[in-house]
Design a protein that fits this description.
- The chain contains 17 helices and twelve strands.
- The chain has a seven-stranded mixed beta sheet. Strands 1-2-4-3-5 form a five-stranded mixed beta sheet.
- Strand 11, helix 13 and strand 12 form a beta-alpha-beta unit.
């Protein structure tokens, strides 16, 4: 079967050239589901994989806007509507200069499987732009967001395609995007998630992915009668997902000793929590460099990407794709790391992922561990429909329950397919079979 996967990926490289992140995401998922494909010829006879890797629709558009110096700027906007098999398209927007169609296709493919794994009635999508909001004034970001939405709004709606945040798209950007969407649509609806609690959002939405990831890691540790208590933890990134993963890890008894940004990393053996974490949150809002931390608190700052060489028991990558290579993975193992839980999407290279899978340590894949945002978005819809406002405690408790259920689903599926403890196999097979069966039932569309 792996020769089938190899030839499928070779074809994919020809039909979707120059998109290595997308090839990697498809490859990793297919490797995990290969035994299911072998047992179910119906999937292959119906050209299901060929349909699965082809987005239903891709929208690419010009985003003209005027910067603070009155210069006309042009960026490229995208929306990859990958699959509506299980519900309306749903997925975040990323604003980052490194955004390409290939990266958004990989993210949309991952999102499709992630949303399937949650068992929620949601399809998968991703979008964004090569626009960099960093260092831009609020007014400039607003003008960009309004122009972006002037084109995208016609494809968005609560039953069509639902937008949310990702790298570079936080509460500020979501507010501007929603304001323009509402104006153009002449409707106050749930086409955009992640709204502020005062106007239709839910509390704990920014926290959802990070908290959910920490809850997922706690479930993984519990399978080995272990917990966060007293453990040294490294968390990459210092944005939305990383900060709230750190907050939950601290409340679960772990000591976060290292965090990073795209320039370098800090190490603080006393632990990054409480006042220190609040400082990092404010720094993130100001979009200031991470090195400011060591001017105010203990610890050291180093330039470069070597956070994974800091000795820790648990690693939670929450920055970006392919941030852990084989050298990093080996350094983690050498230093005694026993658990890696992915807050970011596809943070390990394919080879690094194999190194961890072969090591037998606890390893939680992003498509399971970082689905907290999808889960809490569903809570937002439920609260809007019921006219209720759940408390932070209630949402956190429901989030924990759902993360536990997703973890158990991955674990159970892995056992059923002869790979006990392999959450990569469990997550991919559980997500794939729900999606594939629905595709078969809906015919050739
Ligand atoms: P943010 O933009 O809030 O934060 C990203 C952080 O990662 C920043 O601190 C950034 O530093 C850092 N970073 C970026 N590139 C690198 C790099 N090469 N090395 C080290 N650090 C880096 O993004 P989010 O927290 O929202 O997203 C992080 C990850 O989580 C992404 O993979 C995203 O797809 C995933 N995710 C996000 C969800 C969400 O709801 N937001 C939901 C599910 C997954 P700097 O500021 O210097 O660029």
């Amino acid at each position: 079967m792996s020769s089938f996967v190899a030839s499928f990926i070779a074809d994919l490289r020809n039909t979707h050239p120059g998109q290595p992140e997308f090839h990697q995401a498809v490859h990793d998922a297919l490797m995990a589901v290969a035994p299911v494909l072998e047992k179910n010829p119906a999937y292959r006879d119906a050209a299901l994989l060929e349909r699965l890797v082809e987005p239903e629709r891709v929208i690419i558009f010009r985003v003209p806007w005027v910067d603070d110096d009155n210069r006309v700027r042009i960026n490229r906007g995208y929306r990859v509507e990958f699959s509506s098999t299980l519900g309306p398209f749903k997925g975040g927007l990323r604003f980052h200069p490194g955004v390409t169609l290939g990266i958004l296709k990989f993210l949309a493919f991952e999102q499709t499987l992630k949303n399937s794994l949650t068992t929620l009635p949601l399809g998968g999508a991703k979008g964004g732009s090569d626009f960099d909001p960093k260092g831009r004034s609020d007014q400039a970001v607003m003008r960009f967001c309004q122009s972006f939405m002037n084109e995208l709004f016609r494809h968005v709606g609560p039953h069509i395609d639902i937008l949310a945040g990702d790298i570079g798209v936080d509460r500020r950007e979501l507010g501007f995007l929603y304001g323009q969407y509402k104006r153009l649509r002449n409707a106050f609806d749930s086409g955009v998630m992640g709204k502020a609690p005062a106007w239709g959002g839910t509390v704990l939405r920014p926290e959802a992915t990070g908290y959910g990831c920490a809850w997922f890691a706690a479930e993984m540790l519990a399978t080995r009668n272990d917990s966060f208590a007293g453990k040294r933890v490294a968390i990459s990134g210092s944005g939305t997902v990383a900060l709230y993963a750190a907050e939950k890890v601290a409340t679960l008894g772990g000591r976060v000793v290292a965090m990073s940004d795209s320039h370098g990393f800090i190490v603080d053996d006393q632990g990054i929590a409480g006042e220190k974490l609040e400082f990092l949150k404010q720094r993130n809002d100001r979009r200031a460099p991470l090195r400011e931390y060591v001017e105010k608190f203990d610890g050291s700052y180093s330039e470069g990407p070597h956070i994974w060489h800091v000795p820790v028991d648990i690693a939670i990558p929450c920055a970006t794709q392919n941030e852990i290579n084989t050298e990093d993975a080996r350094a983690l193992l050498r230093n005694g790391c026993t658990c890696v839980c992915e807050g970011a999407n596809q943070p390990l290279t394919a080879d690094a992922s194999m190194v961890l899978q072969e090591s037998g340590i606890l390893y939680g894949p992003g498509k399971a561990a970082n689905c907290g945002a999808a889960v809490v978005s569903a809570f937002e819809t439920a609260q809007n429909t019921l006219g209720l406002n759940w408390s932070a405690e209630e949402i956190d408790s429901r989030l924990h329950d759902l993360m536990r259920a997703i973890h158990d689903r991955c674990l159970r599926t892995a056992v059923e397919h002869g790979c006990p403890g392999n959450l990569i196999v469990g997550a991919n097979i559980a997500a794939f079979t729900r999606l594939a069966d629905a595709m078969l039932e809906q015919g050739v569309v």
